[in-house]
Amino acid sequence: MIFGGGQERGKRPGTENPAAVVGMAVALKDACETMAAEMPRVAALRDKLIDGLSAIPKSRLNGHPSLRLPGNVNFAFEGVEGESLLLYLDAKGIAASSGSACTSGSLDPSHVLLAIGLPHEVAHGSLRLSLSHDRATEDVDYILAEVPAIVAKLRESSPVWERMMKEEQE
Questions:
Q1: Whole-model pTM?
Q2: What does pLDDT average to over the chain?
Q3: Which CB contacts under 8 angstroms, 24+ apart, belong to 46-52?
Q4: In this predicted structure, what is the pLDDT of residue 129?
Q5: pLDDT at site 147
Q6: Please, which residues have CB within 8 angstroms of residue 104's CB and are 6 or more apart in sequence?
Q7: Residue 92: Cβ within 10 Å count
Q8: Out of 64, 102, 117, 169, which one is annotated catalytic?
Q9: Distance CA 42, CA 86 (A)
Q10: Of 8, 23, 126, 138, most Cβ neighbours within 10 A?
C-alpha cells in the first residue's frame, strides 16, 4: 500500500513515531487503571438514557437492553428522519450519529438494523449516542430534556408519521 524507503528491513517506508507510541501506552495504562471504577458509572448513565428515551412513544431500543457496551445507546424513532434529528441535536450541542461508526457519512440506514428486521423508514430514524468517562448525569438529563421535543417536532411535519398514525386509527 505504501511504497519507497527501506525502513523496517524493507517491510514499509517511514519512521515510527516514538512520542505517539509512548502517549498511547500512557493512555492505555490510564484507561486500564480507571476502567473498573468508570464502567459501572457509565453503564448507569446508559441505563438512565435508555429508560428516558424508552418513554418516547413509538421508540425502540436497538440491541439487548443490558448485554451491551456500557457507553452505547441506539434507538429508533418511528416517523423521524435520522439526518433531521441529527441537525436539531447538533444545534442543541448534542453530538450523535444516525448509523454505525463504520458508516459515518452515509445517508443509508444501518445494514445491521435492516438485518434484524427493522423497516427501512424506522431504521432510517435511528439515533446512536456514545457515553464515556467524561460524561455526567447533567449531560444525560440535558439529552433527555431535548430529544423528546425534537422527535415530536419532526413528527409534526413527517408524512411517514402522518401515514402511520392514519393507518393505526383505521
A1: 0.80
A2: 88
A3: 46/70, 46/71, 46/72, 46/73, 46/131, 48/137, 48/140, 48/144, 49/73, 49/129, 49/131, 49/140, 49/143, 49/144, 52/140, 52/143, 52/144
A4: 95
A5: 98
A6: 97
A7: 13
A8: 102
A9: 23
A10: 126
Query: Rounded distance, CA 61 to CA 63, Å?
Result: 6
Residue 122, pLDDT score:
74
Task: Tell me whether strands 126-130 and 59-61 are parallel, antiparallel or unpaired.
Answer: unpaired
Q: How far apart (Å, rounded) are the C-alpha atoms in residues 56 and 50?
A: 10
* Residues 55/148, Cβ–Cβ less than 8 Å: yes
- 124, 113 Cβ separation under 8 angstroms: no
Lowest-pLDDT choice from 12-16, 44-48, 58-62, 155-159: 12-16
- In terms of Cα–Cα distance, which of 82, 78, 77, 81 is closest to 99? 82
Amino acid at 130: S
CA distance 44 to 137: 9
pLDDT tens sequence across 21-79: 999 999 999 999 999 999 999 999 999 999 999 999 999 999 898 899 999 999 999 89
Q: Is 32 a catalytic residue?
A: no
What span, in angstroms and rounded, lies between the C-alpha atoms of 85 and 96?
9
Residue 4: strand, helix, or coil? coil
Asked if 123 and 42 touch (Cβ cutoff 8 Å), the reply is no
